[in-house]
Amino acid sequence: MAHANPSTGPLPPSGLTLEPGMPICQTDLPLDWYQDEFKPYAEEYQALPDRTPETVFPWLDRHVRPALDHFGDSLLLLAHYYMGGEIVKLIERYGGAVSDSYALALQAAHNPEKKIIVESAVHFMAEAVSILAHDDQQVWITNPKAGCTMEMLAKDHMVMPIADQLIERYGDDIMVIAYMNTSGRLKALAGATGGAACTSSNAHLVVDWARKQNKKVLFVPDQHLGRNTAWKLGMDLNKLATLPDPQVHGAGYSLTDGTIDGGVEALDKAEMILWGAYCGVHTIFSTAMVSWWQARGWKVLVHPESPLEAVQAADGAGSTDYLWKAAMAARRGDKIVIGTEGHFVRNAAAEASKRGVKIKHLADIPDPRFGMASCGCATMSRNDPPHLAGMLDLLRRGEAPDINRVIAGDSVDEITARRDRLSGEEQAELIRDAKLSLERMISITEANS
User: Fold this and answer.
1) pTM to 2 decimal places
2) Of the CATH numbers 1.10.357.140, 3.40.50.10800, 3.40.50.2300, 3.90.1150.10, which one belongs to the domain with range 151-280?
3) How buried is residue 354: exposed, middle or buried, by Cβ count under 10 Å (0-12/13-18/19+)?
4) pLDDT, tens digit, 9 for 90 and up, residues 196-253
5) How many other C-beta atoms lie within 10 A of the C-beta of residue 235?
6) Is 347 helix (H, G, I), strand (E, B) or coil?
7) Which of 26, 254, 293, 314 could pair with 302 as two cysteines, CB 3.0-4.6 Å apart?
């Protein structure tokens, strides 16, 4: 699943396999969660006698194989590491690619022969593909309501009123750095302010690039990744200012009304201002969890969306690509605990066990005092076998719902599936600015490869 050289074509297979007899265990969504066009596929799937590959594969093949034959080499299937185990493995079974958000974003641009791109992931990832896509490429998502809790705490209508106030106060001295877990509208904000997008693997490179320009940074949306990046770069953490929790304050406050801890003086002194959002999956990790495993001889690795204290206590921290490579490079007898999304850890554990490597999830501590268990990304899990089968079959028949088409600038409500689509002129402006932010990220990353 490496992305060191994504320009050479589709990503290499990860080697994930569904063993005969292995249950396909992702929890079925209630039928009411499916779009009307997808309900027949969900009903067929739910009527299957079991979830083993021996049963599911023939059913999927009836819908997927004709689509693969119809589109041929023009079709590209994509999925993210965090997807439920069977989707990751099914995408690869049908010739698709699985990786982190950085490599996925580049796939359309670097594979111009792929005209129909279907992504089983969350909406912001598909939109990043669309921003960098060529004009003759179409990007589709298997479930438009597949979102990200962190991105949901940083919608453009929440961020823009605060960003406007910061820009009014600091002018050209402030730039926005937008984590990949943002909409195209916020990536465009980054581009328009001279800033860039970033991922968890290159955030330190992008922030360091901004610092060398003597710019104050508004880091959106993950406060933990921002804080961990500052620590990694050796920044003075006293020069970080964190904006209020958007779940509590939204965007309906002024920089001068006392809502911000430390007030505008804290903002003026700050080298980096952190939006107050976070990932619900990663915020549960603590130093106590890390210490519990370390005391029993386990090596602990965590994702940098985790709280700073957990990152500092762990034996290593890095992106999903870093974590996957660490798991696959482990030697027989190694014991590794990983603090990240639950589906990812289960996939890594299954593959590593074949080589005699033990992998556990950081929160899966058999001690009732902790009272937690591994958590998968529930919004990513909205992509399942019926959505994959339905999307490909409907595309082949020319009946795919327009709501599943992803165009740069689209904003989809994860609850209602209501979509706000920009006008053609607005789309062109957004693509220009958002592409700038992504291209700056790519340039910074490749310059440091």
Assistant:
1) 0.89
2) 3.40.50.10800
3) exposed
4) 999 999 999 999 999 999 999 999 999 999 999 999 999 999 999 999 999 888 778 9
5) 17
6) helix
7) 314
